[in-house]
Amino acid sequence: MRNIMRKSFIFMGVFVILFGWIIRDNVFAYTPVELYDNVWRLINTKFVDQTNNAQDWSKWRHKYDNYIRTNEDAYVAINTMVASLNDPYTKFMDPKEFAEETSSIKGSLKGIGIQIGVKDGKLMVIAPIEDTPAEKAGLKADDESPLTKPLTKSAVKKVLR
User: Fold this and answer.
1) Contact, 21 vs 41, CB < 8 A?
2) What are the tens digits of pLDDT across the range 103-157?
3) 3-state DSSP call for residue 35?
4) Residue 134, Cβ density class (10 Å: 0-12 exposed, 13-18 middle, ≥19 buried)
5) Rounded to an integer, what distance in angstroms lies between the CA atom of residue 104 and that of residue 45?
6) Per DSSP, what are the bridge partners of residue 115?
7) What does the H/E/C string look like for 111-156?
8) Bridge partners (DSSP) listed for residue 118
9) Distances, alpha carbon 42 to alpha carbons 22, 58, 64, 128, in Å
10) Spatial CB neighbours of 135, under 8 Å, sequence gap ≥ 6
């Protein structure tokens, strides 16, 4: 089980990097339908679980061809397709989300010093970062967010930064 999770985690990193490269460098090189199809092909050939979460992956290939007109339409369709994998380590990020996520890799973080995630539909603290206001305040892994209204993970990041 740990080996599968490790492979999934490694794949997630590779997927995020590859997908970010596709979006960042090629978002204007493709039509929105071609962008969607490129992501479909990437998952079809590179996803760790070759059963694609026990679904007929081919059903997604042209599912939205008649509905995708803009890049934003493609992002919504891609997000829906990727979410169907039901893999917590595989997530679609549009160019804006990808830029925000990579800013943390480049070391330009701001905020209280926690890693956040969604668990069972609730915003949770994954881990406080050492020597940050969050750790000093006593936040611990698996603490539920004190926010009273539902926010997306992206919206919470903006508030905390």
Assistant:
1) no
2) 666 555 567 888 877 777 777 888 888 888 888 888 888 888 665 455 566 666 6
3) helix
4) buried
5) 29
6) 127
7) CCCEEEEEECCEEEEEEECCCCHHHHCCCCCCCECCCCCCCCHHHH
8) 123
9) 10, 13, 17, 34
10) 113, 128, 129
Pull the structure tokens for residue 90.
Answer: 């595989």
The tokens of 80 are what? 């829906």
Owner of token pair 């990727």: 82
Domain limits, the chain: 2-104, 109-160
CATH architecture entry for 2-104: 2-Layer Sandwich (3.30)
Token pair 């998952």: residue? 43
pTM for this prediction: 0.52
